[in-house]
From TrEMBL:
This is 8-amino-7-oxononanoate synthase. Its cofactor is pyridoxal 5'-phosphate. Keywords: Pyridoxal phosphate, Transferase. PANTHER family: 8-AMINO-7-OXONONANOATE SYNTHASE, CLASS II AMINOTRANSFERASE/8-AMINO-7-OXONONANOATE SYNTHASE. The keyword Cytoplasm does not apply. The keyword Cell division does not apply. It comes from Sorlinia euscelidii. Gene3D superfamilies: Aspartate Aminotransferase, domain 1, Type I PLP-dependent aspartate aminotransferase-like (Major domain). Residues 40-382 form the Aminotransferase class I/classII large domain.
Length: 393
């Protein structure tokens, strides 16, 4: 026991009191002993590729061919042919000149965006202006902190508010950055990417799009949503619809070269291991032929929203495979999630600071391994439990 444990215990007690205590629950629940089917709405494995034989086989093959680890960072131990092959395929997927792999999306966002923001003083002699959707992923907000830059948050998906902020800053000589997700991970709605592209052009701003929750599951052949508007940089991940782990940026060759020289999270991180590269490579080969799976996931998400709306339940502005079941109260969200688990339905209660205060919710993620019947059962159980829990408060 550390002499500092009482400080940690006091902080944890406060978290429990406010309904914000978090626990790392088992990834795989105990086996179901009755006839009920287990329905898991927690995973971002939207195409159910994480257990696909093609990914497992190529992961094993590349482990035998290249080894189980990369050894060090690519600037120390060198780049494998496997890294180059996967990056070439990722650039093709995103219709860019090049791509660069990172161990995770969180790490990529913090390293890449903070490096770009630090460039402004070197290039212009003035601090950058960073226009950030207020509901962007935590990694993007933390990147501004890492760079020592105060961000200018615009109201969620509010193009008019963003334009007002850009107009106000026209005399600034620092570089401008507009930063957004294409699909917001806790809300399931889409950013107005075409409008953001117009504003970026009009105000000479660098457009940075985190396409993590669209890559693989949305867009033609799973290319995501960002490629259609040709941003200056796309962030994609391989640990969601592509069923593996890791992340990448897709950009011009020049920007890739610059990041290799300036991005700390690339320079100082051990490279992605060959077995993971094999799984990513196999997923990229599969994506063009998974149109039916993508359409089915979209249809099930629409069906879930319909069933919930018919019962007067709110799902925000969701238009994708992510459906938030809005609750508001932290404790109620936790109780509903716990009651669902007893029905063999697994959904995560999302609470502040991941989402704004008073917007606690269950995040329901649809994936290709589900059936319409699974979705129907989930909706009915969720509606019944919600009425019961809220009615007792």
């Amino acid at each position: 026991m550390s002499r500092f444990d009482p400080i940690f215990q006091k902080s944890l007690a406060q978290r429990k009191k406010s309904g914000l205590f978090r626990q790392a629950l088992p990834a795989h629940p105990a086996p179901v002993t009755n006839a009920a089917r287990l329905c898991d709405f927690r995973s971002n494995d939207y195409l159910s590729l994480s257990h696909h034989e093609a990914l497992a086989s190529r992961a094993a093959l590349w482990a035998h061919e290249y080894g189980s680890g990369a050894g060090a960072s690519r600037l120390v131990s060198g780049t494998l042919a496997a890294h180059e092959q996967v990056e070439s395929k990722l650039a093709t997927l995103k219709s860019t000149e090049s791509a660069l792999l990172f161990p995770s999306g969180f790490q990529a966002n913090i390293g890449v965006l903070s490096a770009l923001l630090s460039l402004s003083m070197e290039a212009t002699g003035e601090a950058p202006s960073v226009y950030m959707d207020r509901l962007n992923h935590a990694s993007l907000h933390l990147a501004c902190n890492a760079a020592g830059v105060r961000q200018k948050r615009f109201r969620h998906n509010d193009v008019n508010h963003l334009q007002d902020l850009l107009k106000r800053d026209t005399i600034s000589k620092g570089l401008r950055f507009i930063v957004t997700e294409s699909v917001f991970s806790m809300d399931g709605d889409r950013a107005p990417l075409a409008d953001l592209r117009l504003l970026a052009d009009r105000y000479d701003a660098f457009l940075y799009i985190d396409d993590a929750h669209a890559t693989g599951i949305l867009g033609e052949a799973g290319c995501g949503l960002a490629s259609a508007v040709k941003p200056d940089l796309i962030l994609g991940t391989c640990g969601k619809a592509m069923g593996s782990m890791g992340a990448f940026i897709a950009s011009s060759q020049t920007l890739r070269d610059w990041l290799i020289n300036h991005c700390a999270s690339f320079i100082y991180s051990t490279a992605i291991a060959p077995p993971i590269l094999g799984a990513i490579d196999a997923a990229l080969d599969l994506l063009p032929d998974l149109t039916a799976e993508r359409e089915n996931v979209a249809a099930m998400a629409a069906f879930l929203r319909q069933k919930l709306h018919e019962a007067g339940m709110a799902t925000g502005d969701s238009l994708t495979q992510i459906v938030p079941f809005m609750i508001g109260d932290n404790e109620a969200a936790l109780e509903i999630a716990a009651r669902l688990r007893k029905e063999n339905i697994y959904a995560t209660a999302i609470r502040p600071p991941t989402v704004p205060s008073h917007t606690a919710r269950l995040r329901l993620a649809l994936h290709a391994g589900m059936t319409r019947e699974d979705v129907r059962i989930c909706a009915e159980k969720l509606i019944d439990i919600h009425h019961d829990v809220i009615g007792t408060r």
